[in-house]
Amino acid sequence: MAAPRLQGKVALITGAAGGIGAAAARSFADHGALVLLSDSDADGVNRIAAEIGEVADSHPHDVTSEADWQAVVSWALARGDRIDVLLNNAGVFLAAPLADTSLEEFRRVIDVNVVGTFLGMRAVAPSMSERRAGSIVNVSSVAGLGGSPYLTAYAASKWAVRGMTKVLAKELARVNVRVNSLHPGQIDTDMNARQRERTPELVDKLIKAIPMRRIGTPQEVAQAAVYLAGDESRYVTGSELVIDGGTSA
């Protein structure tokens, strides 16, 4: 059996109450990490931490709040003594024609997906820089690589995550802190299920466009996150790892 790939590392994972975040929490723990989980769904993230066991702990977290980020990072540093990995996973999805997208909805997507990611990177960068070690993994999307109808707000947010990743990768390379982005396609999460309920014809059309003819699993995204979090990717920064069944090939 291969050695655990994250043995002894401390990982902070946002949006960990379900979907990709919960899958990543389980995978990171399986690979030897102490996983510190946050989510606005306090009951949900507590449940995931309890399921994982003694190598997991949880904290409620509104990623759009600067004060919440300060509290969560302080908690993580006290709990784990350091933060080796930040998985910026918390996010919201919106699919709607431009004319039907309200300013309030647009700003909500930007607040969670862009501001939340920005605040997370800014909150962990000082301690990582001081230790001259760390891996920040930002969850973007294939919507951050190209355009799709009805995704004005979501694509704007995920292109921003992609751009911030590249900027900070260059900014922090000199202190050996790596910053990379994940770009999932259609993934079998609660978010995907809710979208299928609202626009089944859109989701079916998207799945038919996937060369592998299926949607991915949260575990498949989690495995990619393990790679970027671990030392096997120590010379990888500013990269875009795409998990989409060949859609954007």
Key phrases:
249 residues, alpha/beta, 7-stranded parallel sheet, 8 helices, 47% helix, 15% strand, globular
Describe this protein's structure.
There is one protein chain. The chain starts with 9 loop residues before the first strand and ends in a 6-residue tail after the last strand. The protein has 249 residues and is an alpha/beta fold. It has eight helices and seven strands; from the N terminus they run E-H-E-H-E-H-E-H-E-H-E-H-H-H-E. Helix 1 runs parallel beside helix 2, helix 1 crosses helix 8 and helix 6 crosses helix 7. The chain has a seven-stranded parallel β-sheet with strand order 3-2-1-4-5-6-7, with helices on both faces.
Quick synopsis:
This protein is 47% helix and 15% strand.
Explain the layout of strands and helices:
Layout: E1 10-14, H1 19-30, E2 34-39, H2 42-52, E3 56-60, H3 66-80, E4 85-88, H4 103-131, E5 134-139, H5 152-172, E6 177-184, H6 190-198, H7 200-208, H8 218-229, E7 240-243
Parallel strand pairs: 1-2, 1-4, 2-3, 4-5, 5-6, 6-7
Helix pairs in contact: 1-2, 1-8, 3-4, 4-5, 6-7
- Count up the helices: 8
Unreliable segments of 5+ consecutive residues = none
* Residue share in helix: 40-55%
Cα-to-Cα separation, first versus last residue = 33 Å
How would you sum up the global shape? globular
Strand content: 15-25%
Q: Secondary-structure element order, as H and E?
A: EHEHEHEHEHEHHHE
> What order do the strands of the largest sheet run in, or round the barrel if closed?
3-2-1-4-5-6-7
Classification by helices and strands: alpha/beta
Overall average residue pLDDT: 95
The description of the largest β-sheet is: 7 strands, parallel
Radius of gyration: 17 Å
Number-wise, the strands total 7
